[in-house]
Every structure is written in structure tokens, then in C-alpha cells.
Design a protein that fits this description.
Largest sheet of chain A: 6 strands, mixed
Order of helices and strands of chain B: HEEEEHHHHHEEHHHHHHEEEHHHH
CATH architecture of chain B: Orthogonal Bundle
Helix content of chain B: 40-55%
Structural class of chain A: alpha/beta
Oligomer: heterodimer
Strand order of the largest sheet of chain B: 1-2-3-4
Largest sheet of chain B: 4 strands, antiparallel
Largest interface: A-B, 42 and 52 residues
Radius of gyration of chain B: 21 Å
Radius of gyration of chain A: 20 Å
CATH topology of chain B: Cytochrome-c3 Hydrogenase, chain B
Strand content of chain A: 25-35%
Shape of chain B: globular
Number of helices of chain B: 16
Shape of chain A: elongated
Number of helices of chain A: 3
Distance between the termini of chain A: 46 Å
CATH superfamily of chain B: Cytochrome-c3 Hydrogenase, chain B
Number of strands of chain B: 9
Helix content of chain A: 10-25%
Number of strands of chain A: 8
């Protein structure tokens, strides 16, 4: 996987208008609305979206952009190593909203939204387990899919995927 | 560092497991019952730790992870066509349905659309995998509640569906048939008439199930009013699929947010909901879903258009940079893939949002205060597949 970036995917029109929603930059990802709150705005934006009818948190996950400085981000959003991605759904309006929060590597933590969406309990534990991003305010932030004594966070890009050494047969002794 | 409730429970359960018993009478909080990881009522290796006060559950917590296979990490070192082989194994009863959202996400990123014939056949196979999955639920629920007969009926009639899947794809459980831009092969000769016959069989199974199980007094006594989940709890816990519809929420991704690439709009069908939200409602909604699904298949079989089954895609698939989220209504609920591509042969990140993982997060809420046998009813009617929880 090369780290070289040959083309910039930023569209010039997106930077000119800079639309916002809930006070944070908005971009469009193949027909889906994407909000880019900062770590400080995270809980406020989720609460405001909940009041607008986005009652379901379908998914909460993270992406590790190690050594990937250029991304599809609107102007004003500083790319960081980790990105927590949440998908919210409104049954009434039949709409989806995706939230992408940039989480710095130096301080990988984010306020928990478990008080708004209790269903993210296991999702936040999974992100903590596999990415090592802590969620402040989560009542039971422990590993969920890996054993408790596991070392490291496997979905980070610098975590080796590992392999089992294959033992080939020794050549047959020649007589 | 404070010790949380579930850590304490896990510790007690581990001690019990060390002592080779599943029941510890004298713990700080009454009695602790440890079900699993190997237990007949868990479809795999889910461990359930329940704190009991007499015969009632004080707190019950599912502990997943015994079957975590790390698919999300493995997907990062596989090319796009290779990934479908892996994700077949997530929900192993409805395998083809696992492939579809991933393929649709890759198609979305590549801006490719499958030809109409491939879309219709894809939808038919999607529904067949739903039939194979939910028909086993109907039989399995009977088995777990003590009625073995319906289990045999379900296994018998599921074979007709699996035979059709095998005839079309070559694999009974793991078809690996969906391709970016279409399908691997066209349908074999005589498949359409045979599938119509299989659909008749499934409808007959539904009638049998209704008479044998749903109308049964014992079944009703064990499921009605057991494990009631209100609509607001279901939505706030991110439940989806039939579990959500059984709480009265009229939401089906096939009708409400069907991604392009599936042709549900060609068929005339109905989304069933039930207002009760209890175990009976979840069973009833799934039974109606099987019926509707057979009607969808019947209608689509008669409307397969002629034409190619593959769009023009390059031989070596490189997906352009970007990210896409595609979710479809799988047999267990909403299954979504968040695919991040960096323009490489392999995906940069694949997040698999499986329905069961969210559906069981409601278990601690719904099992408070229920009796021990009802835990089995609730877990069975919530219907999860362990591969779908642990991925």
C-alpha cells in the first residue's frame, strides 16, 4: 500500500460554499449527508440530531488513517489519525446522516453518547477494543470481542496482522 | 480503577467455570448462573451470565467474543473479489444476503450498476437466503421451547430452498456468487419452475407452523407477554429487522431505503408489523415475512428480464478512492458495510455492521426481572446468529 498521493480528491466547489448543519461543516458522500463535528462538538451535534428525529444510531465505528494525510474532508477540518464514524437514521424522515469525528492520536478519547443512544454500548466497547479509542462516560469500557488480557488494538494499521509460519518439508536426503 | 458490575459477574462466572459448575449459590449478589459458551440454546458460543434472585433474573448479560474471527482485519488484506468468500461466513444461514451489501457498496464506489437481469436474480437469491434463514428460526424456536416436531419439519422444507440455492450457485451454504457488476453465472435450465414448487413448499410449512406452534396453548403461554420491548426502547437500542417490526415500527429497508442494485419495486408485497413487542409478536412477524418473501420470489421469477448478467467491469478490480455505506434488510435485520477505499486492490477499511450485534445489546434491558426459562424464550425469539455477532 503506497502512501504517495497522486491526485487530490477535493472538489473545488465544496471548498467555496462550505455549507454547515448544526454548526459543523457538511459534505456529501455519494448522496449521503456527512457531518464533520469536532471532538468538542460531538455530543452537542448528536443531541441536536436526536431532537431532529435521528433516533437510531445504526452504527458506530472508527477508521485508522495512519500515514494518510489527504482525505475527503471539507475545508476547515484538520485530518487526524483516527476517525470515529457514526451512522444515524431517522425512521420518520427516512434519512441517514453520517458523522465523522477526527480523533487525534496523542489523545484518543471521545465523550460517550450512551446517554442519548443506549444501543451504542457494545459498539463503543468494540471501538475501544479494536482501536483503543476511549469513550469518556461509558459505564463499562472493557474489551468485548477479544480476551481481557489481549495486548494491543488489532484494527490499528500499525498492528501486524500476523501469520503462522509455514513449515516446509525438508528436502529428501539424497542417497 | 473501579470494578464494574459486568466485570464482577464475569469474574464470578469464570470462577464457576474453573470449578466445573455453572451455578454458584453463594455469591455476593444471590446466585449466579452461567449459560454457555457451549449451551444448546445459544446457536453457537454465546455466554450468558445471569444473576438470580431465587427464580428471577436480577441482571443478565451476554458475553460475546468466543467466535471472533477478525473479518474486518482480514478484509484489509484481501482483494475485493476475495472478500465475498469471507463475509459469506458471517450469518451462515443466509449467506448470500451477506455478500449483497458489500458488493453494492463496491459498486457504489466504482459507479457500476448491474444489468437488470442480474439485479432481479440477485433479489431472488437474496430472498431465498432469507427463506432458508428464517425457516430455520421457526423450527429452532419450537425446539428450544420443547416442541421438537416443528424442528424436523423446518429442516425438511428448508432443503427445498437450499437445493435451489445450490442449483443456481453451486453452494448450499456459502454461494460466493455475487460479483461486482453482476453475478457469476446465469440460472440453470428448469430452475424457475423448481423454485416455484419450493415456494409452494415453504407456504405449506408456514401453514403447518401456524397450526402446530402459533395456535398452541403452551406456546402462547410461554411467549405472550414475555420479553416485551416497547418501540422507543427498540429504536434507541438500534434494533432492526423483524425485532423492530414486532414492536410496531413500520420500517423495512427493502421498501423504505432500498439501495440501487436490488429490484424490490418490481414486486407487490407488504411489510408486516405487530403492536405487542413480545416474543410471540417477533415469531409472528417472522412467519409473515416468510410468506411475503415467497410471494416476492414468485413474482420476481415471472419477471426476470432477458439480457446480460454482468456489466462491463475491468478484469482487475481497483475501486476508486472514497467511502460508502450501504445497508440492506438482511434476514436478521439491517446489515451494513462501511467501505473505505484508497484506490487500491484491497479495501482500506471494511466495517461490518451486523444486525445481531445490535439486537442482543437490548438483552440486559429486556431480561430484568424475568424467570429463568423465559431467558431462553427471549434469546430464541430475538434470533441471533453467533457468526453475525462476533464477525
Amino acid at each position: 500500500m503506497s502512501d504517495e498521493v497522486t491526485e487530490t480528491p477535493q472538489e473545488p466547489t465544496a471548498t467555496v460554499e462550505a455549507p454547515t448543519r448544526c454548526g459543523v461543516p457538511v459534505s456529501d458522500s455519494r448522496g449521503q449527508v456527512v457531518l464533520h463535528p469536532s471532538v468538542g462538538d460531538w455530543v452537542r451535534v448528536v443531541t441536536e440530531l436526536f431532537d431532529q428525529g435521528f433516533h437510531v444510531c445504526v452504527d458506530l465505528t472508527a477508521v485508522d488513517y495512519l500515514n494518510q494525510p489527504v482525505r475527503n474532508l471539507p475545508a476547515g477540518v484538520v485530518p487526524e489519525r483516527f476517525e470515529v464514524v457514526a451512522n444515524l437514521l431517522s425512521h420518520a424522515e427516512r434519512q441517514r446522516v453520517r458523522l465523522r469525528v477526527q480523533v487525534p492520536e496523542a489523545d484518543p478519547r471521545l465523550p460517550s453518547i450512551i446517554s442519548i443512544h443506549p444501543g451504542v454500548d457494545s459498539a463503543e466497547r468494540e471501538v475501544f477494543d479494536l482501536f483503543g479509542i476511549a469513550f469518556d462516560g461509558h459505564p463499562d469500557l472493557t474489551r468485548i470481542v477479544l480476551p481481557e488480557d489481549w495486548v494491543g488494538h488489532p484494527l490499528r494499521k500499525d498492528y501486524n496482522s500476523g501469520r503462522i509460519p509455514v513449515q516446509f518439508k525438508a528436502p529428501a536426503p539424497s542417497r | 480503577m473501579t470494578v464494574t458490575d459486568s466485570q464482577k459477574m464475569a469474574y464470578v462466572a469464570a470462577q464457576a467455570a474453573d470449578a466445573r459448575v455453572n451455578l454458584q449459590f453463594e455469591t455476593e449478589d444471590g446466585m449466579t448462573l452461567n449459560m454457555g459458551p457451549q449451551h444448546p440454546a445459544t446457536h453457537g458460543t454465546l455466554r450468558i451470565v445471569a444473576q438470580l434472585d431465587g427464580e428471577q433474573v436480577v441482571r443478565c448479560e451476554p458475553i460475546p467474543g468466543y467466535m471472533h474471527r477478525g473479518y474486518e482485519k482480514l478484509c484489509e488484506v484481501r482483494t475485493y473479489p476475495q472478500v465475498t468468500t469471507l463475509i459469506n461466513r458471517i450469518d451462515w444461514l443466509g449467506s448470500f444476503a451477506n455478500e449483497v451489501p458489500f458488493i453494492l457498496a463496491a459498486e457504489k464506489l466504482m459507479d457500476v450498476e448491474a444489468p437488470p437481469r442480474a439485479q432481479v436474480i440477485r433479489t431472488i437469491l437474496f430472498e431465498l437466503s432469507r427463506l432458508g434463514n428464517i425457516s430455520l428460526f421457526l423450527g429452532d424456536l419450537g425446539i428450544q421451547l420443547g416442541g421438537i416436531t416443528i424442528g424436523f419439519y423446518a429442516f425438511r422444507d428448508r432443503e427445498f430452498v437450499l437445493n435451489q440455492i445450490e442449483a443456481a450457485t453451486g453452494g448450499r451454504f456459502h454461494p460466493n456468487f455475487d460479483r461486482i457488476g453482476g453475478l457469476k453465472d446465469d440460472l440453470p435450465k428448469g430452475w424457475i419452475a423448481e423454485t416455484h414448487r419450493a415456494m409452494d413448499r415453504m407456504r405449506r410449512l408456514c401453514d403447518e407452523f401456524e397450526e402446530l406452534v402459533l395456535g398452541n396453548e403452551i406456546f402462547q403461554a410461554r411467549t405472550r407477554g414475555i420479553g416485551v420491548i416497547p418501540a422507543d426502547i427498540a429504536t434507541s437500542y438500534g434494533m432492526s429487522g423483524a425485532n423492530l417490526r414486532a414492536t410496531g415500527v413500520d420500517w423495512d429497508l427493502r421498501r423504505d431505503a432500498c439501495p440501487p442494485g436490488l429490484s424490490y419495486d418490481l414486486a407487490d408485497w407488504k411489510v408486516w408489523t405487530h403492536p405487542d413487542g413480545d416474543s410471540y409478536a417477533r415469531t409472528w412477524v417472522r412467519l409473515q415475512e416468510v410468506r411475503e418473501s415467497t410471494h416476492i420470489v414468485d413474482q420476481l421469477l415471472d419477471s426476470i428480464p432477458a439480457g446480460p448478467i454482468m456489466a462491463k467491469v475491468p478484469r482487475i478490480i481497483k475501486v476508486p478512492e472514497g467511502e460508502a455505506w450501504v445497508a440492506t434488510e438482511n434476514p436478521l435485520g439491517e446489515m451494513g458495510y462501511y467501505v473505505v477505499s484508497k484506490g487500491d486492490l484491497v479495501p482500506f477499511r471494511v466495517k461490518i455492521r451486523s444486525a445481531s450485534f445490535n439486537n442482543i445489546s437490548v438483552v440486559p434491558w429486556v431480561t430484568r426481572g424475568v424467570f429463568v426459562p423465559d431467558v431462553i424464550t427471549i434469546m430464541a425469539s430475538l434470533y441471533f446468529i453467533l457468526g453475525d455477532i462476533d464477525r
